[in-house]
Amino acid sequence: MTTDRRIDDSDAYSKFRPSRFSKDGGKWYFATREGTLEGPFELKSAAEERLTTYIKIMASGFMPRNSTLSIQTGGSPKR
Predict the structure, then answer these.
(1) Rounded-to-integer distance, Cα 62 and Cα 32, Å
(2) How many Cβ atoms are within 10 Å of 18's Cβ, its own excluded?
(3) Residue 10's beta-bridge partner residues?
(4) Backbone angles phi, psi at 42, to 5 degrees
(5) Where along the chain do its domains lie?
């Protein structure tokens, strides 16, 4: 069975919490459970799409829970 939520998520699940998204300097960002702030994105819809990808990667089981993975939009990787 394929799901877009983590195994330990309860059935009462909201795909995106409004508090995950923020706008600063005209750019959009999203916060992750792992404590990273991802962005910047020109449009909120782009941030939402990237969050969907991030959730799928984290739910896949291939990334450890304590990973500091950051999905970059381009340019230099974070160090």
Answers:
(1) 17
(2) 6
(3) none
(4) -65, -40
(5) 18-59
Query: Where does residue 35 fall: left (phi above 0), alpha (psi -120 to 50 degrees), or beta otherwise?
Result: left
Higher-pLDDT residue of 14 and 31 is: 31
Q: Backbone phi, then psi, for 56, in 5-degree steps?
A: -60, -40
- Summarised one tens digit per residue, pLDDT across range 26-75 is 999 999 988 889 999 999 999 999 999 988 988 888 877 676 666 665 54
How far apart are the C-alpha atoms of 75 and 14, rounded to whole Å?
31
Closest of 75, 1, 2, 64 to residue 40, by C-alpha = 75
For the segment 8-37, the average pLDDT, to the nearest whole number, is 78
Confidence at residue 22, expressed as pLDDT on a 0 to 100 scale: 95
Q: Edge-to-edge strand order for the sheet containing 27-31?
A: 21-24, 27-31, 37-41
